[in-house]
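Usage example:
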Amino acid sequence: MTRMLERALYIAALALAVLCVTSLAQYAMAATPIPQAPHDALHAMGPQAGHIVDLWRVMLWTCSLVFGAILAALLFAILRAPRADATAAPDLSAVDRAEPRVRRSVASAAVASALLLFALALASVFTDRALARLSLAGAVNIEVTAHQWWWSARYLDGGHADTFVTANEIHIPVGRPVNLQLKADDVIHSLWVPSLAGKKDLIPGRSASMQFRADTPGPYRGQCAEFCGFQHALMGLLVVADPPAQYEAWVQAQRTPPAPPTGAKAIRGQQLFQSTSCAMCHAIGGTIASAQHAPDLTHLASRSTLAAGTLANTPAQLAAWIADPQKHKPGVNMPSTPISRDDLDALVAYLETLK
Amino acid sequence: MTHATLEASMAADRVRMKDGPPAGSREARALDVTWDDPPGLLGWFCAINHKTIAKRFIVTTLGFFAAGGLIAAVMRMQLSRPENTLVGPDMYNQLFTMHGTTMMFLFAVPVMQAVAIYLVPLMVGSRTVAFPRMNAFAYWIFLFGGLMLYAAFFVNSGPDAGWFAYVPLAGPDYSPGKRVDFWAQMITFTELSGLIEAIVIIATVFKMRAPGMTLNRMPLLVWSNLVTSFMVLFAMPAVMLASTALILDRLVGTHFYNPAEGGDPLLWQHLFWFFGHPEVYLIFIPGLGFLSSVIPTFSRRPIYGYTAMVLSLVATGFLAFGLWVHHMFATNLPELGKAFFTAMSMLIAIPSALQIFCWIATMWTGRLNLKTPMLFVLAFFFILVLGGLTGLMLGAVPLDLQVHDTYFVVAHLHYVLIGGAVFPLFGAFYYWYPKIKGRMMGEALGKASFWLMFIGFNAAFFPMHWLGLHGMPRRVYTYQAGMGWDGMNLLSTLGAFTFAAGVFLSLVNAVASARRGAVAGADPWGAGTLEWSIASPPPPCNFHAIPTVHGRDPLWQPAPGGAPARVSGLAVNVREVLVTSVIDALPDHRMTSPNPSPWPFLTALATTVLFIGSIFTPWAVVWAAIPATIATILWFWPKHKDNSEDLALEKAP
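Running the assembly step on the lines above writes:
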């Protein structure tokens, strides 16, 4: 009687375990609805991430099958074998007698595993090939440099005069391939925009590149994936895929320096920017501020986030960030600057004109 | 021979083997006195008995396990909700560095070596390990290295560049101060201990097996420790070299890793992972040995497929060195190279799969005794297999590029390490505790602890697969609200606390059972290997008479035709051991094993001063080398007294 109860318990426990894993696997398969920008390896929005999701499905189902089979074999072994305690004499018949049936089962399981592994390795290699086949005809070329803890992007297409720089927000045209040249300024970082492609490390002293294409317009969130020190956690970026016409308009806007500020407050803000420590690190196109130690602010007001994807770009958040960056990203390289309320307002008013 | 007569002769043989010189006889008492550690406080520092050292080693590593676990609990609390402010980035980066460093360098590999130091001599029928003083020295430097790391952590100088310490972040420019210096020196230091233990284990296994224990009769646990020790010999020097180059970059101004001066940050990654990947198998292969000890005993039959098992262990040991690059797929390596490392990552699954099939076959054809050790071992099949399968996913380059450095990898590595090592290790503790303490651990408490650990573990780590696929990177101290990661992180934190409660329950069980557990007797599980032929806890000399071996499970397989069951002729008043041949374990010669000595402890102390001092001034290397040299010379000072005593007392008991 207890034996039957025990069997029932084992079947129940193992069935429950398999049920949990398969249902959680189902859960893992489904992409979650994401309120802001997609940031999700299973939420593929371009061919590169798409091929990888296909490989993920093959892997998930094959591995679930193998997992189920091994657990089932274990369960049968536990249920089938009679019970014995420590005083029972060991069964030594196997010492001088072969066990041909067991041998056959073990050998065929091993051969099946080898074949399955070979198939998975092939699937991986074919996916790798598919990823390498992305056509780069008409690609947009951008040089992305990672810094502790922000990103700068230099658009290389066109002549020397046509290049321009943006920070923490990369716009790309929908349907056209993008070729990123990756560089690191200080330590190793890793660029990861999961909905568009897998990640790639940016290593000081080494060059690397990354290719992808977005097929649907919209913002996609990215993130540094290699531990890079203090604020690794808050080193995000946005990749915004625009319809072609909108993209061209954006490029033209970026190539044009922002109009000089009008209005007394904004003018005072510009003077403040240029006469205080701001200009020692940041650059603003068309002005005397040209330092490259911190994000380029030329078209700051047109970006949707601040502080490498950490804060929404609103005047209030901008003011809070300037007043005390250490509160939002402790340890970040931008110092907290004591600044009067009036000056802060003027500075924000000026920065808000940088469309 | 019928089954009944077989059993009868076996039982008689067991009695014979336990005999030796009769318990309480003059010879037995003399042996106990000869092999015991010296009394008193001074004796405590002089102890070299392998069981004493191993017990200290095990307790120390478990202490570090508890410390690493507490750190993990704080980390899980910080991540239980978005934008939490329990700890900031500075503390969090120290915490995860300390957690990884503690678990990998101060717990997982050392605890496996510590258990091996206790069990291997007992399982091969030897009175001690080879090089017992070196064994003691290895323990002391391990202890000092670990304490040095924690001392730094408590004065807010804990390393914060990750347990993998990638350069240039860990280099002089981006990690100024002493934090990474402590880390780099501690690594070199504790890995030295690992190397020494590997040499001790290899020499013990090859030269000190009881007569008749040919290589193909060696218990699988001994095989797994032999393979692990060889792997240590090849893997550890890589990381010691890497950490030495790092400390030179930091303190002396060399440029091994500085790209501006012709160095290369990828050199660090190659050296580190050439050690770091085999390290996983250093932890996992002894776990396989535990399974191969527990499963046959609780299936009441010898293991199925012994030869296949041994070949699998050796193959795993070899292949483990061929796949370090799968930690570096995102670093832009050549395509063909990546395909090779994908193939290797898949290939290494085959020997592990073969072992799993053999264990299932053993249970399938056996009669099961489902006690606590067996439950912990069964958990292996659920957890390790799942971790192994996600390992295949990571071996596929395209998929790795998505989930690398995300929580998916955190889930995977905990499934492999906790499923492959910690659950088998807990099974091993429940299994061998009676041998060490002479008392059984509580069965009910053991089962409760098992279920808490099993459920808690899965609740803590399974959701991390989901988190990684949905974009959560690892090594982040916080995450923003609205990413959709809140629920899974909370579940994971709750699971982690359940797991910790299970571990705590086992600890309570161990402490309570030390006094109140049922008296175990020599062989409470009815097992077949040599350590169960002697009293629990074992006498200081392990075996009053060295047994002879006639099969793979000596206690189950009797000596045929009245062959001698034990060896006589070793001195009782001198620490004399029997040395046997490598392959066939034929008696070769008798050798005197060293006596207790304070010098291993004092040498370790001097070496520690050298290593810690070097962080502050290179001159420490020079000045501390003097006492270290003096201590080493005194350690090895020949004592003619020992030899003359040896000759005078040579007699057959």
